[in-house]
Amino acid sequence: MKNTTTLINANEHVKKGDYEAYLSYLTEDTKWVFIGERTLLGKEAVRQYIKEFYLAPPIFDMEQAIEEGDFVTATGNISLKNKNGEYDHYTYCDIWRFDNGKLAELKAFVIEKKE
């Protein structure tokens, strides 16, 4: 469960809005694929994404994590503050690949909750 623990620790920084500490958990060449939306290549692209979309620290909970080798699949809920100051709510399934204990690749399935 070493990689799951790393993911949980990294996410604690996001919850606190300490994004630079979070970024230290990523490989320099990290790759994030948001299925059907966009792909981010490299730590700097993730930094810019955070600046654009995390207008306030996101509120999220990881419901389940399954670790197998260098991969952790995590499911849960996340709420992001929008430009109107209201929160949009999503359900996610993230598949993380780790490389030497760092977050190297993300494949994210994110679905907005409409209710």
UniProtKB/TrEMBL annotation:
Keyword NAD recorded: no
Pfam families cross-referenced by the UniProt entry: SnoaL_2
Signal peptide interval: none
Domain SnoaL-like: from-to ranges: 12-105
Superkingdom, natural source: Bacteria
Record keywords, A-Z: Isomerase
Molecular function GO labels: isomerase activity
KW Iron (keyword) present: no
Protein name: Ketosteroid isomerase
Organism taxonomic ancestry: Bacteria, Pseudomonadati, Bacteroidota, Flavobacteriia, Flavobacteriales
